[in-house]
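Q: Okay, next protein. This is Exosome complex exonuclease RRP44 from Collichthys lucidus. I've checked the sequence twice, so it should be correct. Can you predict the 3D structure?
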Amino acid sequence: MLKSKTFVKKTRSGGVMKIVREHYLRDDIWCGSESCSECKQESTVLQRDACIESNLCPYAHYLIPDTNVVLHQIDVLEDPVIRNVIIVQTVLQEVRHRSAPVYKRLKDIIHEKEKHFYTFTNEHHNETFVEREPGESANDRNDRAIRVAAKWYSQHLKTSKSDPDGLKVVLLTNDQGNKEKAEESGLLVYKCEEYIKSLIANPELVDQLALSNDDKNEITSSKMLFPEHLPLSRIQAGIKSGSFLQGTFRASRDNYLEATVFVQGEGEDSTEGLQNLNRGVHQDVVAVQLLPRDQWVAPSSFVLQDEGAAKDDDAEEEEDRVLRISAAEAARKPTGKVVGIIKRSWRPFCGMLNVSHIKESTRHLFTPADRRVPRIRIETRQAATLAGQRIMVAIDGWPRHSRYPNGHFVRSLGSAGDKETEQEVLLLEHDVPHQAFSQAVLSFLPKMPWSITPEDMVKREDLRHLTVCSVDPPGCTDIDDALHCRELDNGNLEVGVHIADVSHFIRPGNALDKEAANRGTTVYLCGKLIRAVTMFFFDFIRMAFSCIWEMNHKAEILKTRFTKSVINSKASLTYAEAQMRIDDTTRTDDITKSLRGLNKLAKILKKQRIQNGALTLSSLEVRFHIDSETHDPIDLQTKELIVFVCAMLSFQHTTVHLVIRETNSMVEEFMLLANISVAQKIYDEFPDCAMLRKHPAPPPSNYDILLKAAKSKAVEIHTDSAKALADSLDVAKVDNFPYFNTLLRILATRCMMQAVYFCSGMDSDFHHYGLASPIYTHFTSPIRRYADIIVHRLLAVAIGADSTYPDLMDKHKQSALANNLNYRHKMSQYAQRASVAFHTQLFFKSRGILNEEGFVLFVRKNAIIVLIPRFGLEGTVFFDTKDKATPNLVFDEEGPTLKVEQHTFCIFDKVKVTISLDDSNIQHQKIRMSLIDPVIPGVSVPAPDVEPQAKKPKLDR
């Protein structure tokens, strides 16, 4: 049956357009129930014996939740107890429109066979479709559509010949008006809370109920702690007029009374103090009103230690006078107050329960693992069980009268301190997709045994005759690149970089492609790898994408060509093996000659890039040796890596090994050259939609700490350009201080901006500051990075080796994809650092107190941050500890220096400290450092007489 609706619409030019909308209705849409004999359905989802043990519904029944129940109670719906649920199309469409994360979770539940969730297309069923009535709101029409669908199911199942008693249908809604209208229609309807409380099988499921605004048990207080949030209409008008600014709320890790709001195109504004933060939560999109200039403050130079006990709602607000900085002490930043919330970015948070001291209380505080997130008040009857567990909690709301937001328990993750549990927390907190690849994804992998077919060779060049080999770190499993070099008849050299042609197998839009796009990048944790794409290798005979240059002996590029190819790798070498071949003068085989040619050219290329201003900075890398049985770290190595800045900002060949050889640099040079050549090619062909990578030049203010540190040692650093910085770092030396240059380069690393992906049609600044290159992309590692797969597709279209598709040529979609890739890359870096920090804690757990020498890297108002080169470890030495009187502290921002009693600390000062693990707070365990030398009476601690006889770490010197 076809229904059509005609209406007219006024166009921008003033004309009138007639629009006809057609809506198809059918009589043959199945109900999906096993007990139904009326529908001619090929398969069923809803069970005949649909019995959920309930005091309210002691009979077989199906559930139909309305939209708000799905949106707010998705944690409950995911529980195994909840089965045989009908999701009507109206609800599915509304959820998709209002919350993408909840929609994805709902779709995942629907696909679980054990859950028996059925999608009923009521909007196309002749008996359940309803027109919107005159004067009826869209929300009221949708509620009516859900009620009509529930009514139809009740009558349809009751008349089924195979089930004369009839199954019941229970509508779940928290809307009182909707509930009353459903009852008037004779429907069986309950509020979600009363139904869940009636369940016998899982009474603890009540803890997972999200609190609604009208919950009677909400904690109240006569005192209003926060200003009222402005309505969205006023916020939008204020942003339009310029009286308000819109930005992303970013809470401080070090100071819970401070936050910055990042305003696109405007930089950052500060907010500070409990009231000015006004219930903003990290990553919320907020509206900010700037305060008068005389109320502006500067970010605090204090580093806060543990917050201490959580305060109740009726406690007095914390004194924050000590956190303020006067204008005389530092340049003040624009400071404002949050006046409204535009978009909440709440997610389930990992953390631990602070059990109430009140006996048999069901109200407790939850402390998130992320210090930027406030404590959350929840209700649970499982406090005794959950104590000492890592749990997940979601925020439901934050009333004006409550110091803390209200939330609900989601699920338990396991015992705190357990390695598997902590790794799960780490991945969840950094939003790293880490579930096993689904069967839908795996179904798109090439079938084994795999071989090259004649069809594969149609648009490929056969390069199996070339002496191609791969050179990688020891133990590398992602072997996706290879090289060759040979002399041509004309005396020039042919050099090729050959990259695994992953895009041949990952086709646009299939499940494998969507999963890789979502994951974005491989995440390297200590002892664990979270892959971006599933493993498949073509080590010795494989399809590749080749970038081939003709060069003269001065490494000048004469010709460049790109081709899809088939190669036959003649060897898979480690850096050390390749280096030994090059150094062994008795070896004259083709592989060795190829390596020597590559190495000679690479040295020239590297020299040219450094002369052009490519930056070389320092980074301390840590590598753990893991016990094969306990999986505990039993040893660690550190090594100073002198790497190009692009390598520090994600480059495969310099972050997983400890000994730097010429062959490391050799591989890096040609990978960089391939990326530059491919970037130019795809931009020339597709100037509006090329996926490129840039490294922005740091703003001058970023260099303040570097310049001050260098000045403290009478060294001058120039930051006018990357070349000026590189040249001045090269000559920066201090007599009798050989480690100074390394420390300076480490500090310079902290000044750098993050390299990011972008779409060429959405930006005009392509420059890569660290490489001193006008254009750059990622082409060389499609197994590890989804960006490389997109670049492969663009390049394949450019050379006529593959066809295009709409999304590839859409600059807006390419830009959105680049944003996701940048986010995933940033989160993966944070996750990797957190993994190193956790394993460092495990390493020191059984080692008691150690004495080590280090260097002051940063100076704060109440502390110094110390770098321990031996362990690649940074820690904070506090001088305002709670267990003893605070010494006389004088902080000089200009130095920066910190005078503690009679001793003044400067950046790069050599100190000696004790290192131990502070596990007094099981959730926030940390490495604690105390000063030994210089000796400051009343401040320094005596050095332990005897160090524990634990195995000391070996250092790769």
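A: Here is a summary of the prediction. The mean pLDDT is 85. Residues 228-299+331-345 form a domain with the OB fold (Dihydrolipoamide Acetyltransferase, E2P) fold (CATH 2.40.50.690).
Q: Noted. On to the next one.
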